[in-house]
Amino acid sequence: MEPEPEPERVPTAEHRMNVRGGALTGRDDARRSRDRIWVHLVWEGLLAAAVVVAVLAVRSEDAAAFSGNGLRDLLVTLAAGVLLGTAFALSLRAAVPNLAVGAAAVTGGALTGWLVAEREYALLTAALLTLGAAIALGLALTVVVVGFRAPAWAAGLGAALGLYAAVLSLTGGRSLLVQGAPDLRRWAWALIGGALLLSVGGGALGLLPGVRDAVGRYRADRDPAAGRGGSAGFVAACALVGSTVLAAAAGLLLALRVGAVVPDDGLTLLAQAAGAALLGGASAHGRRGGVAGTALAAAFLQLAALWLGLVEAEPWTRPALLGGAIVVGLLVGRLVEAAGSGGAEDLEEYRPAEPDPYATESYTPYQTGRLDRPAYRQDDEPWWPGQAPPPTGSSLHAGPDRQSGSRLDSGQQPMFRAGAVEQRPYRTGPGEESPYLTGHGDER
Question: Which pTM value belongs to this model?
Fold first, then answer.
């Protein structure tokens, strides 16, 4: 008697969801982390070439831009642009795009100037209070985005409008001088070095598989309104707070460089931040990003804007430059998503040929055999439950006996009676056997 084969185990609905688009853990998580980095490196090489071309174009118009105070001014402005682009890239990679970075930059300068001019705070104290307010704003965004599972872009847009209203209230709609502003040109190299360290160092840190997966945990793979878990929420909170603080710091640099704050809605600064982040290779879907792409893209945009000013280009060219950078960045992000993934061969999705009989959503009764009418019924009279039919070709009885209540063929004994000594397999049909025994036999 051969044992009944073990039914093949196939993935349940939860397992299939985890493989195809849900949260991956363990071995699957390790596979998922194997993104191809070469696509970022190739694109960053092209960006570096574009920066060199922009440097040569600016130098051809004004050689003094790369020497003396002109170079220091450029470095301070570039440091602010790198911080702003890094702020938005951080929120993008964490899948919580913060559209309030531009307004946060303007508000950072306006709040510092107002505290110094109206409340007579020391500049350092005012700057620290501004950064503390940025942390509070980031935590408020976290409550809305993570706590209430609202889209990050919508929460950021609402925060940007609220910050613009605050700027108008603080400044009265007029430019506000930042009194006692230091000359940042003395620390130009330190500022650009710190900005590059944050941007490039953060990108290099993101190459580590564990960091890359942790940053991308909030990326929506299923229902975008569903919870992502505690660890994903913590990473999203850090990204929202960090991006808001970096944006406020960039606004402080811009305000201190010129010594004044112009009330603005921050849309241009947001476009500059988004252009630098997307053009640098950060994916709009989250998680993926390069190493030095944001810094290179910010440098290119800054030099291109400077060149447009030197050649006295039309006013519309600056918005067109930023809009084009965003569009090209989205195309680059699509390339990153297509070529940056490890591919289907890394996930090795298991596709069963049959549904799982143990899964509740695909339950079908387990079939032990086929009820064969000729094997179970003789003369249209059913056998009692637990009894087996006579073997094929047997000369045992086939109907009731006229004297004892069961019909026997002449000279034969009843098939089922106490004291059976032989067991036969329970026949489910011609040529089929089952391991379930009924305890019937023949009396010899």
Answer: 0.70
